[in-house]
Amino acid sequence: MLVQATFALQDVEALVPMDSDLDAEVSEVERESAKPAIADWLSKQLLINVDGQNRVPATAGSVTYDERNNVHVEFRYEAVPRRLLLMQATFLSSLPEGHRQFVKIQDANGDTVLEQVLTRASDLVRLELAASHGGHERKLSSWQEVSGDFFRLGIEHIVTGYDHLLFLFALLAVTHGFWPALKIITAFTLAHSCTLALAALGWVSLPASFVEPFIAATIVYVAVENLIRGDRAGGRYWLTFGFGLIHGFGFAGALGEMDISSGDSGILLPLLAFNLGIETGQIAVAAIVLPMIWRLHGKPGFSEKFLKGCSAMICLVGSYWFLARTVF
């Protein structure tokens, strides 16, 4: 039985010490030296039970890194489940809140019998093999469950993605009506959907060390433009589209470590569900915020103060994020 796991390198670094010389930087040599410790950590945090008996790996785990800053760990177990397979990912309690782990189980023929997204609150996989050969109905059920998981993940990602929301708020703060706001939201949606798909498919890749500071910089730029040009800021649609391309790479970071391309449903279904979740959350937030923005703009003498005050605060927050992601 083969078990493979994929993690973001930064998550593993927080749990398995790699910086042996304490110089605040992890060298290639230090990463290579940390491989046994990573395998040992995961072997203790991934509990496998086969037909009622707890199992341990038959050999030491194999650890590799890829160019997308992911860590891949592979274990082999001698026992092959006949009736019941239980797997508990206790490591989820140590990873950041909101972390998701995509699980796929295949049989000896390479056919997928289960796909599931694990969370801190739901870290157990249970597979009764006698009931795992439900053919088309089983696969359809699995796809539906995975779609729901990724849809909810998309909603959570945008609702808790304060940098993305602040960028969108800064753009919408200059609008006075429905159509200008719709054009901005549409431009943002088209842009981040394009790069989210390209990044998730592995066709285009940008390092998080560039993407995250750049996202903060887009917030500062839009806020400064609001301060200088007020609500007369034109050309917002092209600006939104251009900056939205970078934000798409930020959304893709939530999927990168989950290796969704390995799923039996392919990458398109989870990607579509995740993107629909983002759009649903985005529309819900806009539906709440926009009426308040338009109402404040409708008050004579207050509109300009509101725009400049909000933009100044947004500029400060964006500047702090930029410094935190580069200097600090």
TrEMBL record:
Pfam families the record matches: HupE_UreJ_2
InterPro entries listed in its UniProt record: Put_HupE_UreJ
Transmembrane region(s): 165-190, 196-224, 236-255, 267-294, 306-323
Protein name: HupE/UreJ family protein
Keyword Manganese: no
Entry keywords, A to Z: Membrane, Transmembrane, Transmembrane helix
Keyword Transmembrane: yes
